[in-house]
DNA sequence: CCGGATCCCTAATGATACTG
DNA sequence: CAGTATCATTAGGGATCCGG
């Protein structure tokens, strides 16, 4: 338990308070802060993650159990699903509810914060669907050009 | 040259034609295809990439040279910038122009296809900026709960 | 100045076995 | 069922040197 998660769990450089406050400073106004230790970068790294995007998009449909997510997301391992869900829970995007039954049941759903992300993630998915042909074509051309 | 790129270059399973055609099949209509070998998943993996997002967002401002990108994106190495740019070029999102001068000059800009992604990537960045406080708070609560 | 090719190391991820 | 712990693997990414 020392290198889990897309980023380390407790992590972040010690004294980030000062850095955080001047986070958006001394750059031209049209550009957002791209510094590595910036909140935005860290959040982006979590959201724009291979599995996180899929989980969020799936939870659009409503509450799902661990096993359901596991089956829906082709190729994810139990481990990565756990890690991904924990990170999302940690960031307040997903709520985890344990029902003290036997056999145990655990349900996941988007929080209201998580739901504010839905539009954007869906936009990404939609974009991918709409442009996959163009991209495939571009790849073929690129390959053909024998760069 | 055998393990570069966010995904392998020539890659993709051999006979994907059949799979591709039935790609969106036998699932409920409200759900997109999440299969690992699906185009959408592969494209998503490329777009939702730590560096790709940053590069695309930066190229919003216009044409940039390799060195400029390198300096703007805090923490990226020459190598990863090269790899990222080549992937984006390969997918037809970025155009690379070499000027046969000495010293050489290479410029990168979004293609029209790449520009169709801008709205979405910016939305992601904006979302992150707007909600960073909530997320930081959620993390602190989560940590406090000593889960 | 813009990268390509290599070497190398660490972090990320998969597989498996175990538990409440 | 829903994880956790451990081990093994590998792919991501940095450093460096080289060529155009």
UniProtKB/TrEMBL annotation, chains A, B:
One of its GO terms (molecular function) is DNA binding. This is HxlR family transcriptional regulator. Keywords: DNA-binding, Transcription, Transcription regulation. PROSITE patterns: HTH_HXLR (PS51118). Residues 38-136 form the HTH hxlR-type domain. It comes from the Bacteria. Signal peptide: none annotated. The keyword Magnesium does not apply. It comes from Myceligenerans xiligouense. Residues 1-22 are annotated as: Disordered. It holds the Pfam family HxlR.
């Amino acid at each position: 338990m020392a290198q889990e998660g897309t980023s380390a769990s407790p992590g972040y450089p010690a004294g980030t308070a000062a850095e955080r406050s001047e986070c958006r400073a001394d750059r031209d106004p049209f550009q957002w802060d791209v510094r590595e230790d910036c909140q935005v970068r860290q959040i982006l790294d979590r959201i724009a993650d291979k599995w996180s995007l899929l989980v969020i998009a799936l939870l659009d449909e409503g509450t799902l159990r661990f096993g359901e997510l596991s089956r829906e997301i082709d190729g994810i391992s139990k481990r990565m699903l756990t890690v991904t869900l924990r990170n999302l829970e940690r960031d307040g995007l997903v709520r985890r509810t344990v029902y003290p039954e036997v056999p145990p049941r655990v349900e996941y759903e988007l929080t209201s914060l998580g739901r504010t992300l839905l539009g954007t993630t869906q936009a990404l998915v939609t974009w991918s669907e709409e442009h996959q042909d163009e991209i495939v074509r571009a790849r073929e051309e690129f390959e053909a050009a024998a760069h």
